[in-house]
Amino acid sequence: MDPSGKLIYTRNNAVLSGNLQTIQDVAIADGNRIPLAIKELGTTEVFPTSITHSPNGRFVTVVGDGEYIVYTALAWRNKAFGNGSSFAWADDSNTYAVLEGRTKVRVYKNFRERTTAPMKGAGSWALEGVHGGALLGARGSGFVVFWDWETGNVVRRIDVDAKNIFWSGTGELVAVCGEDSYYVLRFDRDAYNAKLESGAEILDEGVEEAFDLVAEIPEGAKTANWVGDCFIYTTASNRLNYFVGSESYTITPFDQPLYLLGYIPAHSRVYLGDKDVNIFSYALSLSLVEYQTAVLRGDMDAADEILPSIPKEQRAKVATFLEGRGLKELALQVTTDPDHKFDLSLQLDDLDAAVEIARTVPELEAETKWKAIGDRALAVWRFDLARESFEKAGDLGSLMLLLLSIGDRDGLEKLARNAEEKGQNNLAFAALLQLGAPAACVDLLVKTQRAPEAAMFARTYVPSKVPEAVQAWKDELTVKGRAKLASAIPDPIEHPELFEEGWKDAVAREQAAEKQHPPLPISESTSTATVATEATTDAETEEDYVDA
Prior knowledge:
protein transport, alpha+beta, ER-Golgi transport
């Protein structure tokens, strides 16, 4: 596909074309197949293995059967042909290179072979293919080499296994793609020219200062294209990604292999095709890429100017990007996703904003949010908010720990009732035990058909409840048809001599203990929590409060 959206492909020797510009006004959802009118453009004399547009879109080169043919893109007229296994255009669309065999590189300008300034060292390396761009690139086994189009000098030879080379339109960035990773390099033409002007000898390795490594990304780029300083590519794992600055981001995964055709800025969409040339597209706002580039450069003023031009549906991606860069406050301002806004509010300890969001969410969906608010409120010593959050989340376990820590007996009694109503019997038992209500513990055990445990517990903590628990135990066994076993369980009222602790003395001690240690008065839970919060607020930090 050329920059204007004209698509050319072949079926056997037939050449077909379509124009993606015609779908500009059609609303297309991401990932849906695009209906495209196809017409036959002509035929080609070779069986194609590759098709390459010139940078300006005027010409198309077909390579196959050890030959190449250059056609005009509109009329499909033969412009030039010759022997060659690989073909590469220069940025000016008037110069191109052809690889013949494994060692011979021919350079043409205005469709005439250039007899001066041959590519130095080309005959000494076994090459597998050539690649166009700001420099002429070639790859061999374990290396790539870059030549200056005009002089034929070696700019740089790099030891790396490469499958493809992609240059950005500015001629400043280049992606060298291997099987499992790719490298993004920055070409410094000024450094290269300075080396030449110094008169220093240029060896076969070229000028080391000519390239700087920008990033190494540990995934292979199968098909790719540059849009400004943004590198868009597909991976072997069926994902559409883009690279900007020094990091890679995923646009979308696929459920089948797709091949990148190109990007049309007017549509703000990436276009891809499958093996049957069914066309698909995905949105990628160029302003989003420009914004990310500005942020990565640290130019926040430029980023602020670009932000209003980013479509609202892309704001979530912007916020995720900002969060990844550690700019969480800015991400909170940008995001339009309530869940993301909630998460950022928690991370920034803006609990009031998090509460407002949680209150707008349906009750069933809000439980996890209230639980998260409660946990964070505890961490920042906001006990009042933590209590409210745990209550709304139904997190009785966390609420019990909080109530125990602030000594809220009234709250614990309410919690025990709620836990029992919700069937959280273990929690209800623990709350009753903390309240010092052993009789209520026995009643709960009996109610939940744990009569044997109730009897044992009562014998230890509340002897007066033993007869009731024993009778419940016997009734359970009788219902199960085990009356003989039930009759073997002694009742302390009928057989006090079997209880070695002395039954009457145990009951008397229980009654005396209740008189000497009556239940603690119910605390004013609200004032307790408020005092604790105010005490913490007055301290500058938790450590200062402890030291004081």
